[in-house]
Amino acid sequence: MSASTQALSPPHRDPDTRARLGWTLVALVLLWPLLVLAEFRPWALFDAGNLRVMGSFLGGFLPPATSTEFLGYLLDATLETMAIATAGIALALLLAVPLSILSTRALAVSKIGPGPGRLGDRMARAAGRALLTFLRAIPEIVWALMFVRVLGLGPAAGVLALAITYGGMLGKVYTEILESIDTRPARAILEAGGGRFAALAYGLLPNAAQELTSYTVYRWECAVRASVIMGFVGAGGLGQLMDQSMKMLNGGEAATILFVFLVLVLFADSLSATLRRALA
Amino acid sequence: MGFELESAGLTHGNGFRALQRVSLRVGRGERVAVIGPSGAGKTSLIRLLGTALRPTEGRLDVLGANPWRLSAGALRRLRARIGTIHQSPPIPPRLRVVTAIHAGRLGRWPAWKGLLSLLYPVDVAGAHAALARFDLADRLFERCDRLSGGQLQRVGIARVLYQQPDLILADEPVSALDPALADAALGELVAESARSGASLFASLHAVDLALKWFPRIIGLRGGEVVFDLPTARLTDSMLHELYAAEGAMLPVQARDAAAGATTDPEADAKVIRLDTSRGR
C-alpha cells in the first residue's frame, strides 16, 4: 500500500537472530551445571568391566520363559494389569473432565467483556488448577503405598492410586488442549447466549476430539507401565509377577513379561490410530 | 429499541483507540449499514454492540438494557437475542452443516436439548428451511470442511437467521460471495429483518451493496462517526472523502461485466454509477 514510504534500505538481516543466538547460549550455560549435577557420564557405559556386568544381566533374560504354568499366571496378571489401567483411567476421567471444564479459559463466559462474576470465575479456575496440580504432584507410587496399607495387597490400591495421579495429569492436559485449539467457535456460542456445555460440545470438542482421545489412550499406555512399578509394592498385576520373578532371579520370566509390555504398547498405539482415524 | 450508544469509546488493552465519541441510536426493525476504510473500527463497533467487548467510555444500551449492568443470567438471555454474523464463520470444520445451524439456538435451548441434538438432530426441518433460503438445502448433512468459503459464509448467515434474534449484527457478511450471491444473501437478511421486526446492523466493504439495501448509512473512519444519514442524502463527495486514504476509487462489489477484463482497478471504479442503485 505505502511501499514508497518504507523503501528506505530495509535491512536484509533477520532482526531475531541476536535474540535466538543469545537464548541458545543461555540454554547451554544452564545445561552444563545440570549435567554435572546429574553425574552424566555416558562413556562409563562402554568401560570393559561395565559392559561385562550389563552383558551378564541381560544374558540372564534369555531364554524367555514359556512353561504352561507360568503362561497361565502371565495371562491372569496381564488381564489384571489391563483391568487396573482401564479402571484407573475411567476413574481418572471422572476427576479430569469436570475439573478441566471448570479450569479452562476457553469456556470462561465472564472473561467476555469482561462481564459479571469474573472474580468468582477466576477464583474457581485457580482452585481447579490448584487441585489438578496437587493431584498429579504426588507420584502414584506414594498413593499406592498408602492404599496398600489401607486396602491390603491387590489391584484396588493400584486403581485408586492411578485414578488420583492420572486424574490430575489428564485434567491439566485437557485444560491446555482446549485452550490451544481454535476457541472462536466456542466463544461465538457463548456470545450468543449458549452455556458452557453447549460451547464445549459444539465449539471445542469437534476440533479437540482427536487430540483428547490420543492423549487419553497414551495415558492408558502409561498406566499399564505405571501399574508395574506399583506392582512392586504389592498393587497386583504384571508388576507383582515381575517382582516375584526378579526376586527369584528368574530372568527368563522377566523377559516374557517385558514382551507382553511391548505387545500392550503396540496395542495402545493401534487403538489410538484407529480412534484418530474415526474422529478425523 | 434496537440499541443506543452515547459518546461511547473503546480503547484496547494495548492502548489502541478503536472507537471514540460514537453516538448512535437505531430503532427496532431499523436497517443500517456501516461503511468505512479498513481499520475504521467497524468490527470493533459490531463487537461492542454484540456485548463481546465492553465500552471503555460512554454508555451502551442494547435491546433496552445496559448489558454490563445485568446479572450473568440476564446477560446470557440478552445475548441469546443478539445474532452476530462473523466475517469468517466461527464453525469447527468437522461439524456437520445441520449441527452448525442448530448451534444458533443453543442460547434458547436448555442444555439437555443441545446435547441430545448432537446424538440425533432435533429440528431437521428448521435447519433445512434456514439453509433453503441460501440455496444450500442439499448440503444439510455434509461436513462443513466440504464446503467452499462462500458456502460456509452462507451457512454462517443461515445459522444466525435460525437463531431468530431481535438484533442482527453482521460483520462483512458477504465478503466471500460473488456479486450475485452477495446481493441475494443481503436480500435475505433484509427480508428477515422486515418479516421478524429485528433490527439489522451490517458493516459492508462494498459501498454499492450498502447503498442498494440500506435506507441509512453510517460512515466510520479512525474510530469516529463521519456521517450518519439517510441513504438518499449521501453524496458522492462524502463517500470519496470517507475513503480518501484508500485512493480515488470506492470499494464496490458488483463490477461491471464490460470492465471485468481490464487490469486497471481505477477503470473499474469509473464505470460504477452509484446513483443508479441508491436509496432503495
UniProtKB/TrEMBL annotation, chain A:
InterPro entries: MetI-like, MetI-like_sf
Keyword Transport: yes
Subcellular location(s) of the protein: Cell membrane
Bilayer-crossing regions: 21-41, 53-75, 82-101, 141-164, 222-242, 254-275
Keywords recorded for this protein, A-Z: Cell membrane, Membrane, Transmembrane, Transmembrane helix, Transport
Source species of the chain: Aromatoleum buckelii
Name of this protein: ABC transporter permease subunit
Top-rank taxon, per record: Bacteria
Pfam families recorded: BPD_transp_1
Domain ABC transmembrane type-1: start-end pairs: 78-272
Family named by the database record: Belongs to the binding-protein-dependent transport system permease family.
Topological type in the membrane: Multi-pass membrane protein
From TrEMBL, chain B:
Transmembrane intervals: none
UniProt keyword list: ATP-binding, Cell membrane, Membrane, Nucleotide-binding, Translocase, Transport
Residues covered by the ABC transporter domain: 3-247
One MF annotation (Gene Ontology) recorded for this entry: ATP binding
Pfam families xref list: ABC_tran
Superkingdom, natural source: Bacteria
PANTHER family with a match to the protein in the record: AMINO ACID IMPORT ATP-BINDING PROTEIN, PHOSPHONATES IMPORT ATP-BINDING PROTEIN PHNC
The name this protein goes by in its record: ATP-binding cassette domain-containing protein
Organism, scientific name: Aromatoleum buckelii
